[in-house]
Design goal:
About 45% of the residues lie in helices and about 20% in strands. The protein is of the alpha/beta class. The N and C termini lie far apart (about 40 Å).
Length: about 220
């Protein structure tokens, strides 16, 4: 079973080399790494071309970039990975086992890289909420079988909350495999904007989205 690791990027020069080098072990096993650039004006593309199997160009926006990656992927399973997220050891064997056991899709537990005590609360909340609701976020490294991708039609073209909506569509096919091994994702978003402020903002945006507020309206608040 072949896994296609799809990474949407935009000006990730500080992160992308380390992330891609950590995936060499999987490329050596016959899996593929696809980087989809959304219009970077730094050296992200140049670096990616050294360490990825394919580097694609797309309009900016994670949903559009990931769908561009899906269109070119050769794998039986798609793994959507953020540029600032590192997989645990032997992650792909866990994915393959989950799919072979009958799961249509799944995600990993997440751990944030920072040491602030609030990060431990955020992690536990994200992981617990995901298992209870069957909804995952991009930070949790969502993986999906090709057949399931074809059924739901890829990522919904939303400017925000695309992972949440994607999860809801996949949830109709079956509950996600909740792999307890942790991906490590950068805490820079919280640190740059303020940990408590960002946490409260994300909770509010998710609540509003649940209540029916459009992603187009929410993205203005997020920005």
């Amino acid at each position: 079973m072949k896994v296609s690791i799809i990474i949407p990027v935009l000006n990730e020069v500080e992160q992308i080399q380390g992330t891609l080098k950590s995936l060499d072990v999987y490329r050596n096993l016959g899996h593929e790494v696809i980087v989809v650039d959304g219009g970077s004006n730094d050296d992200t593309v140049i670096i990616s071309e050294q360490y990825a199997d394919k580097v694609l160009h797309s309009d900016m926006g994670r949903a559009m970039q990931m769908n561009s990656g899906i269109a070119e992927a050769e794998g039986d399973v798609m793994l959507f990975l953020h540029a600032d997220t590192r997989l645990p050891d032997d992650a792909l064997s866990g994915i393959i086992t989950a799919v072979e056991d009958g799961h249509f899709w799944g995600r990993f537990n997440v751990r944030l890289s920072g040491n602030h005590f609030l990060f431990r609360i955020i992690e536990r909340t994200m992981n617990m909420r995901s298992c209870i609701t069957g909804v995952a976020t991009g930070d949790q490294a969502i993986f999906v079988s090709r057949e399931s991708i074809d059924i739901v039609g890829g990522y919904p073209q939303l400017p925000l909350m695309e992972d949440v909506e994607f999860s809801k569509r996949l949830r109709k096919l079956g509950w996600p495999a909740c792999i307890k091994r942790q991906v490590i994702t950068s805490s820079r978003r919280w640190e740059d904007r303020g940990v408590l402020r960002t946490m409260l903002l994300m909770w509010r945006l998710r609540l509003l989205f649940f209540l029916g507020v459009s992603a187009e309206k929410l993205v203005k608040q997020y920005q």
